Amino acid sequence: MSPPEPTPAPRRPRRLSSRQLVWLDRTLATGLLLPLLLYPAAGLALVALPLSLAQLVPLYWRRTQPVTVFLLVTAASVTQAVLLDAPLYSQVAFPVAVYSVARFASAAWGVAAVTTGVIGAGVAALDWVRAYGTFTLGDLSAYFLTITVIVVAAWALGTLGRTRLAYVEALIERSDQVQREAAQQVSLAASAERARIAREMHDVVAHGLTTIVVQADGARYAAAQRPEVAVQALGDIGETGREALTQMRRLLGVLRDDDSPATAPQPRLGDLVDLVGGADVESELLGLDSPVADGVALTAYRVVQESLSNVRKHAGPGAAARVRVEVAGDAVVVEVLDDGRGAAADSDGQGLGLLGMHERVAAHDGELHAGPRPGGGFAVRARIPR
């Protein structure tokens, strides 16, 4: 018996790899810096160049550290408003920073960014109109509305991108859940079929043994009176036994079907190669062929599996992960690092994945540490005694 084939997984939307996203950000920031080469010929104030650099350079990290980049760009823009009474080309960094916060940070930070932008639009409009000596309500409104529209548009585009990503991830999670439920139904159906076969085997064996017992009793009583009947009864006993064994072997052959999901073995350390290979992450796996207790191997596998799942859910788009597993000495050492949002990552407040990892590792007297990395991203490190 072979279980029905599960429904094939839907094709996931094409996305840029983490390396491609890094190069995209570098290209954008570098392209915005190039016009600064014309500053000497434009006759701008000496302070214009450092102010412009302070506004544009942080954009290299706008995807991984959006809040920090926004704060740096805002501080540079405030400094410009104090030192200069004229706009600079580099102020294009502010709407880019607003977009980045709305796109890659939380909704609350997005609202704070657009609010800061609207207030800054009023301050900039007032500063520039006064500098030009034509302080009229019409000029002030024109400047204010133009800057505000740019800031609000950047925030709206970033918010749209963030909500769309959340929607796509929810659809993917729902698809994964449906596939898991379908696989579970297949497994339950296979288990029910095996239970039915086991009942049939019980009936076959019980019937054969009952016949053998009855014929053996008859042969024992007939042996003293009619030996020829006993010989025939013994022949029937052998024939019945052989038939019962044949039926039992057939049914056991079905129960031993290796393709059944109900008999799939628990993951071992060697299965980590397929796990990290399918996740397209950088990996370093050492000593996987060393003898390790089944429970320790399963715990190490689950720690890596749950950590990579958390990277996909919480680290943000384009986050890269690195997995290192080493069997050395008297322990299995597991390390999963990513360069995602780290402490700024969204969380559902439950922490059940990390709690489950802690409980698994603690059951083997091991240690697990999980938390944001100082330079950004998140780290999970575990040491499980062998």
Automatic annotation (TrEMBL):
<keyword id="KW-0411">Iron-sulfur</keyword>
<keyword id="KW-0408">Iron</keyword>
<keyword id="KW-0812">Transmembrane</keyword>
<dbReference type="GO" id="GO:0016301">
    <property type="term" value="F:kinase activity"/>
</dbReference>
<dbReference type="Pfam" id="PF07730">
    <property type="entry name" value="HisKA_3"/>
</dbReference>
<keyword id="KW-0067">ATP-binding</keyword>
<feature type="domain" description="Histidine kinase">
    <location>
        <begin position="302"/>
        <end position="386"/>
    </location>
</feature>
<keyword id="KW-0004">4Fe-4S</keyword>
<feature type="region of interest" description="Disordered">
    <location>
        <begin position="367"/>
        <end position="386"/>
    </location>
</feature>
<feature type="transmembrane region" description="Helical">
    <location>
        <begin position="66"/>
        <end position="84"/>
    </location>
</feature>
<dbReference type="Pfam" id="PF02518">
    <property type="entry name" value="HATPase_c"/>
</dbReference>
<protein>
    <recommendedName>
        <fullName>Oxygen sensor histidine kinase NreB</fullName>
        <ecNumber>2.7.13.3</ecNumber>
    </recommendedName>
</protein>
<dbReference type="InterPro" id="IPR011712">
    <property type="entry name" value="Sig_transdc_His_kin_sub3_dim/P"/>
</dbReference>
<keyword id="KW-0808">Transferase</keyword>
<feature type="transmembrane region" description="Helical">
    <location>
        <begin position="32"/>
        <end position="54"/>
    </location>
</feature>
<keyword id="KW-0479">Metal-binding</keyword>
<keyword id="KW-0547">Nucleotide-binding</keyword>
<keyword id="KW-1133">Transmembrane helix</keyword>
<dbReference type="InterPro" id="IPR055558">
    <property type="entry name" value="DUF7134"/>
</dbReference>
<dbReference type="InterPro" id="IPR004358">
    <property type="entry name" value="Sig_transdc_His_kin-like_C"/>
</dbReference>
<feature type="transmembrane region" description="Helical">
    <location>
        <begin position="140"/>
        <end position="158"/>
    </location>
</feature>
<dbReference type="Pfam" id="PF23539">
    <property type="entry name" value="DUF7134"/>
</dbReference>
<dbReference type="InterPro" id="IPR005467">
    <property type="entry name" value="His_kinase_dom"/>
</dbReference>
<keyword id="KW-0597">Phosphoprotein</keyword>
<keyword id="KW-0902">Two-component regulatory system</keyword>
<feature type="transmembrane region" description="Helical">
    <location>
        <begin position="104"/>
        <end position="128"/>
    </location>
</feature>
<dbReference type="InterPro" id="IPR003594">
    <property type="entry name" value="HATPase_dom"/>
</dbReference>
<comment type="function">
    <text>Member of the two-component regulatory system NreB/NreC involved in the control of dissimilatory nitrate/nitrite reduction in response to oxygen. NreB functions as a direct oxygen sensor histidine kinase which is autophosphorylated, in the absence of oxygen, probably at the conserved histidine residue, and transfers its phosphate group probably to a conserved aspartate residue of NreC. NreB/NreC activates the expression of the nitrate (narGHJI) and nitrite (nir) reductase operons, as well as the putative nitrate transporter gene narT.</text>
</comment>
<dbReference type="InterPro" id="IPR036890">
    <property type="entry name" value="HATPase_C_sf"/>
</dbReference>
<keyword id="KW-0963">Cytoplasm</keyword>
<keyword id="KW-0418">Kinase</keyword>
<keyword id="KW-0472">Membrane</keyword>
<dbReference type="InterPro" id="IPR050482">
    <property type="entry name" value="Sensor_HK_TwoCompSys"/>
</dbReference>
